[in-house]
Amino acid sequence: MDRVATGDRTAFAMLVKRHALRYRSLAFRYLDDVARAEDLVQEAFTKVWTHASRFDSTKARFTTWFHRIVVNRCLDEKRRRKVDQLPETYDEADGRPNAEATMAEEGGKARLHAALAGLADRQRLAVTLSYFDGLSNIEAAEAMDMNLKAYESLLVRSRAKLRERLLEDREQLFEALG
Question: What share of the chain is helix, strand, coil (3-state, %, to 5)?
Fold first, then answer.
């Protein structure tokens, strides 16, 4: 980051190459929109480039700092995003699952995704940071701007809610099978 702050494009390119995929995944899991997730991460990297001098390695690691930037952008996007009403004459969308949805369903991914989507934003983010992004509890707490005890408490509640939702899905599946 010191090299990036001095305008070193090679250092910045290496930073982007090293971290872009991980943070696009984070943004996608949060926004459920591939194109918007890519745009959002690109905007976040632009912010890193323009504000690299603000980074203080004594306060946080780059990954924690950048997580906070991406998470804040995701939260802003979710607040901004409003569903536009379609005119009455607009045709309804085809409700059949597309190939991507069919593939995601394999292996229970769709059920897990649905259960995650049913969690509150902060709960979903806590689960995502700890289990999908592999952050330690301390790193995740910093990324969410929380103290460690509060984060761990949120994570316990999140796992309990997720377990409850997945058990409900399991019971409904067995009832449907007969």
Answer: 75, 0, 25
119 shares a domain with 160: yes
Pair of tokens at residue 42: 């690109």
Name the residue type at position 80. R
Model pTM score: 0.52
How many domains does one find in the chain? Answer: 2
Q: Are 55 and 15 in contact (CB under 8 A)?
A: no
The whole-angstrom separation of Cα 101 and Cα 4 is 40
Q: Which domain holds residue 52?
A: 1-82
Do 3 and 78 lie in one domain? The reply is yes
pLDDT of residue 84: 57
Task: Extract the tokens encoding 150.
Answer: 């509060």
Question: 138-170, pLDDT tens digit by residue?
Answer: 988 988 889 999 999 999 999 999 888 888 776
Asked if pLDDT for residue 91 goes beyond 90, the answer is: no
CA atoms within 13 A on the CB side of 52: 16
- Nearest alpha carbon to residue 48 among 33, 30, 70, 28: 70
CATH number at residue 154: 1.10.10.10
